[in-house]
């Protein structure tokens, strides 16, 4: 099984004064872990091959750490444009999955497009927008491996990442203003998964998914 290197792993390394992280060939570094590695100038080695130096990235496996897939229906169209601009300013690489106008359309189409990019590792995280954030999240969570959440304040955003390792964020464009959306997004993107007992619970969710995939 591939080992997932999370931000909590990097924080643990830093806690004990570590400056070098050695990983196996099939290890996957999460986007938040990659950010922490670069910020703290951690040297990463895959066997004897140097992956990240203190000064530059030579190559990073599955390097989607700044790619954010974003999509939504007509109620989220105008907010989506502002969020894409904001993500660009923050140094992220947003991928617009539609819709591309304010004409009435169906939210499942765009929620699926976003979630598919995340689960296929074509994006480090996803964001779905509609009137309340709820229906798009329901859609995204039909895909095994997706943990989509509707957040309504900074606390729910932090908890969804720290406790649930959420990989798709759903926001309501008729329930939240743009500045609140930006604040929630900032917290969500900067919060690390805590692991530990929370990983045990996520493992149970994954087992439930496997049961129903057999039908």
Describe this structure in words.
With 215 residues, this protein is of the alpha/beta class. The protein folds into two domains: 4-52, no CATH class; 67-190, Sugar-phosphate isomerase, RpiB/LacA/LacB (Ribose 5-phosphate Isomerase B, Chain: A), CATH 3.40.1400. It contains eight helices and ten strands. It has helices at 7-15, 31-39, 77-89, 107-119, 134-140, 154-162, 178-190, 197-213; strands at 4-5, 20-23, 28-29, 43-46, 49-52, 67-72, 93-96, 125-130, 148-150, 168-172. The chain has a five-stranded parallel sheet with strand order 7-6-8-10-9, with helices on both faces. It has a three-stranded mixed sheet with strand order 2-4-5, with no helix packed on it. Strand 6 (67-72), helix 3 (77-89) and strand 7 form a beta-alpha-beta unit. The longest helix has 17 residues, at 197-213. It is globular, with a radius of gyration of 18 Å. The model is unreliable at 48-64 (pLDDT under 50).
